[in-house]
Amino acid sequence: MHPPPLAAAMDFSQNSLFGYMEDLQELTIIERPVRRSLKTPEEIERLTVDEDLSDIERAVYLLSAGQDIQGTSVIANLPFLMRQNPAETLRRVLPKVREALHVAGVEMQLTAAVSFLTILQEESVSVHTYAHSFLQVILQHLEHRDTGVSNAWLETLLSVIDVLPKETLRHEILNPLVSKAQLSQTVQSRLVSCKILGKLTNKFDAHTIKREILPLVKSLCQDVEYEVRSCMCRQLETIAQGIGTELTKSVVLPELIELSRDEGNSVRLAAFETLVNLLDIFDTDDRSQTILPLVKSFCEKSFKADESILISLSFHLGKLCHGLYGIFTPDQHLRFLEFYKKLCTLGLQQENGHNENQIPPQILEQEKKYISVRKNCAYNFPAMIVFVDPKNFHMELYSTFFCLCHDPEVPVRYTIAICFYEVSKLLNSGVYLIHKELITLLQDESLEVLDALIDHLPEILELMSTGGESSVQENKLSSLPDLIPALTAAEQRAAASLKWRIHEKLLQKYACLPHIISSDQIYYRFLQRMFTIMMTNNVLPVQKAASRTLCIFLRYNRKQEQRHEVIQKLIEQLGQGKSYWNRLRFLDTCEFIIEIFSKSFFCKYFFLPAIELTHDPVANVRMKLCCLLPKVKSTLKIPADKHLLQQLEMCVRKLLCQEKDKDVLAIVKRTVLELDRMEMPVDAFQKKFYEKDLLDQEKEREELLLLEMEQLEKEKQQNDGRPMSDKTFEKKRRDTKTPTTLPKSIPVSAPGTSSGTPSTGKEIKKSKLIRSQSFNNQAFHAKYGNLDKCASKTSTAAAYTPVSGLAKTSMISLSDDSFRTRNASSAPSSFSSNTPLPGTSRGTGSSVDPKSSGSKDAQPRKATLKSRKSNP
């Protein structure tokens, strides 16, 4: 679109000017109420208080002569006055508060109720003093004409009842309650009495309850007002827990039976919910002879009653079926199951294509209630699986589960997504039955559904991969043919939205994929996507999540050529990238490498590229590197890494001497002190570093075993003269999953030993293969669990990061040719497996000259690769 012409954009004709004047007049009219709301000098004078007054004197003055807003402020500040000077506050301020509350408005009453409760919770005075000073004020305002004020004071009183002694409760609360609960009192008074009775039950012994409280309870259960009967019915659960099983059967149960037949829907609903919550108290005879017929009758009449009853019934149905499990006849069992299925599809038969604006409001309200019913059914679905037995899931409940996963309403699908993990655990070996539903929810158009599903995505995928119709685990990938496309589509939908927290969480959960799918599948379908997110996404937590997941993918990659290619891309595109933002992300990646990999791995590939950034032209990069240097130094071992230590010390000295940025220099000085205090571990085990050294040794051993297995597999392929089949590759891929804890039967090799040299004898090769397989058959979950513990470190506050000044690179497709395995005939020398990567290894005496390791311009610094020496 082109901008409008200047004459059209700025028209100063007479008509246009009159239009501008009218707009200005309208603005003036809008501003008039604001001007009128300003205080006049007389009003300001009345609101002014002498600054020399103490807090107590100022409070007394404002409560006596101030306006309502000033009095409300004093009452809100009452807990502070009680902490400062409780005696003077009780003597001078509290009487003024009592006087003000007699004529106070709603706001002041609500503020007083909150302040009184705060004073009780802070224990500013003793319980006896509180009861003497505040209890009567609370009781006086319980029956305030405003329902909100009355409820606020009631909540304060119920909290006070918990701490008051029995004698005070009897004289101040229970005795007056006898008259307050009479029919001659107001409905509000009787409602308050119901709630107080429920609270008092736990404060007295059974004899007192039976003699003084239960008669009042029976009277209120038979009140003429349905509101009072319903309120008292909901307190029967608390009363039953306080009086014991015998009195519950003889007193509470008959009242519940009578209330369940009440003419008021709310009363019957309250009786039903109370019966469900008290199922554990009643024995089998009571359940089968008394409660079951009531529940059956309630369910049969529910469709003819108000939809609110269906909402409550659907919510409690799982608990009800669990409580009555074992006493159903086969016919009753089938009826309850059919009733649940009917609730799961309630309202779906009335779906039509009409616009919402054309539907009457009462129909829309009814549909909302039906949605709540189906949502509650989704919530209770795991309980219903237990009810029918997981063995019967396919015949009895699969069609219902399918409907809930494909429900047209998001709240229903969201709830079933939350329950998906529980359903998977209950089905166990039958989890293969819900593979398609997992794909459906992963592809759901609503990100809320995806967010609910990915909370337990690693556990779900693990159950999917290890369970299924067949116990042969070679078939686990073939049973999930659509899993990888669904996962990639879910990530792309999350990336395209503004809900970056869902995207971050999903990337964190992808760290479980090495245990689910093959190394090649991760390499071709996910690794490049992680690179793209790290380099193009604008949200820092998302970039860090992608970086950490990429490191885990690299950790469990089984092909050395692919690992070298990924490492080289990290160094060239991030560590030596033109954008300072990419170089910052490289340092984040180095931190994850130190956490996930062994020390020798970091020193071999990432030590020199990391410290080379001490020459970076951007201060933020140097500052971040200085903060990382203590962790970098912790990867060194003396004397094997003495040359690397010298490189590190040389870089730090140059920073101290040449750094001109004052912020960076300050961090450098703090870092130098921290580096000086660090103790350097030696090659041999030390008691102080024993646990860390043992963990690092385990990591190094796992990395060497990956190389060992790759070499053995290559030799086996050469001897057989044919490529491995998919089934054989999958079996070997599963065997190469590495654990965190070493088996006790396997000797621990010393760090730095090389096991990549091929053995000569067949028996040695066979023993290595068996040893590696036995090692890798250990639990992978422990390793993944340890790695996932630090995932929360990458979660930061919601803040979008700035994009670098350079133009963004275009999105790279998931099947980028640069990430495909090269053939020997077409592979460039820079990506061949024999090409050394920029870095160093333990035990070598060569070092890189820091003068040539980087420059201060913004151009990318090339890695010193042997294959590029001939290039001009």
From TrEMBL:
It comes from the Eukaryota. Residues 713-766, 820-872 are annotated as: Disordered. Residues 713-737 have a biased composition (Basic and acidic residues). GO terms for biological process: blastocyst hatching. The keyword Zinc does not apply. One of its GO terms (cellular component) is ciliary basal body. Residues 834-856 have a biased composition (Polar residues). Keywords: Coiled coil, Cytoplasm, Phosphoprotein, Repeat. GO terms for molecular function: protein serine/threonine phosphatase inhibitor activity. It is found in: Cytoplasm. HEAT repeats lie at residues 213-250, 252-290. Residues 863-872 have a biased composition (Basic residues). Residues 751-761, 824-833 have a biased composition (Low complexity). Serine/threonine-protein phosphatase 4 (PP4) occurs in different assemblies of the catalytic and one or more regulatory subunits. Component of the PP4 complex PPP4C-PPP4R4. Putative regulatory subunit of serine/threonine-protein phosphatase 4. This is Serine/threonine-protein phosphatase 4 regulatory subunit 4.
